[in-house]
Amino acid sequence: MTTEDYRFVPNVLRVKAGSPFILALYNAGREDHEFVSPVLAYGTEKSGETMTLDTAAPGLLKPGRSLRFQVSAPPGTYLYSCRRKGHANMTGTLIIE
């Protein structure tokens, strides 16, 4: 997945349930972005840029940097967003089915 200025590409992700998966995020934009989602509250391991996984205190992904998460979450629909000021419409959906 890529962050561009004010959007996630793609903004809908579908993955199969039953085993951990890798969620990779790259900031191709010119501004800092956040990746905030309740899916991060489940078993995650991260690599790349240091980032807080607590959804109440998200970290930043700087331009040109990337993150990789190994996620193990139950089936469901999880919203994700960037909560930076002025980025209110920067949202997406992760569907684990």
From TrEMBL:
InterPro entries: Cupredoxin, EfeO_Cupredoxin. SUPFAM superfamilies: Cupredoxins (SSF49503). It comes from Nitrospira japonica. This is EfeO-type cupredoxin-like domain-containing protein. Residues 2-96 form the EfeO-type cupredoxin-like domain.
